[in-house]
User: Fold this.
Amino acid sequence: MKPPSLEPAVEPDVEALLGVIRRRRPPRRVHHLELFLDPEVKDALAARFGLEEGLDRADPRFALRREMRLHAFLGYDVFRLGLAPKKIFDLPQLAAADTTAGALSRGQRDWTEEHTGPIRGWRDFEAYPWPRVRDIDLSPLEWLDRNLPENMGVYDLTAHVLEMISFLLGYEGLCYLIHDDPALVRAVAERIGAFYVDWSRTLADFRCVPFLWGSDDMGFRTSTMVSPAFLRELVLPWHRACAEAGRARGKPYLLHACGDLSEIMEDLIGEVGIDGKHSFEDGILPVAEAYRRYGERIAVLGGIDMDLLARGSEQAVRARVRETLEACFRPRDGLGYCLGTGNTVANYLPLENYLAMLEEGRRFAA
Assistant:
């Protein structure tokens, strides 16, 4: 089989992307959207397609210029910056060898300690070095506001509310503290939520940011991580506040959230007011079924199953992409659906499968 050629070429068009997300203007082509691409993937693609040619590595804005060129080449209208990553919170990390085969391995994978976190009681809460938005370097956004082509946009992630509660307390610790010290859990939630509302307002003020994107994994394969009642009381109101920060600037609010969220989907749509939902898995809710259920009310984003992309053949990936576009793009002339992975472009996905997904999107539009 010939390697993917990424033909026909496409030009970024962030306004058309917004028309798709808002379900207002049928697009001329399939638009692609990802939470992010792993750095190993971006490095491999830049090397494979010569995307650093003519760029000066000594340029202080080399990384931003490469991001612009790489994502435009791949057919994206937007890309993620990563100015306020989860590591802005001081969190204990565990590590193990990265089992990804071949050149895309990063050598080591890190994850957050799930048993106990840095906050075990009120003394820890008072002593914790809480991050502040004013300490984040905004100069990349300021530079992009002046230099990003008008047909592209950038975003950063926000609203890691439940994730940070469980990281700071430890997921196991959170489950105990919900019963043993609910006031402490509420205080932690309020500090985290207030930080992300401030961050959302800051992002929304930039011209180059077309939408806000909350990212908060709230479920696993069969249920939410904590009770829906807990989410409604201490998590979803902060997402609503972040969404309102975007709406105040005329910008949609997208949500990436893994897991089975069927018990709170009506809350997310009706109370939080999400404009789009990202992260779908065949074993929980296939994206075509999600589009059938929710596609008249919100945008449905991504959804090509990660297991298929990681372990399936290129032919199987191509077939699934075509099936998904027939189910999610064709019925409403592209309104409310963007093509992408079910989660992220992870370094363990074969590049040929990822590129085949992109190419099938271009062919479908053509």
The first helix runs from residue 14 to 21. Strands lie at 78-80, 93-97, 108-112, 153-155, 157-158, 212-215, 253-256, 276-278, 299-301, 337-338. The chain has a mean pLDDT of 96. The two ends are 21 Å apart (CA to CA).
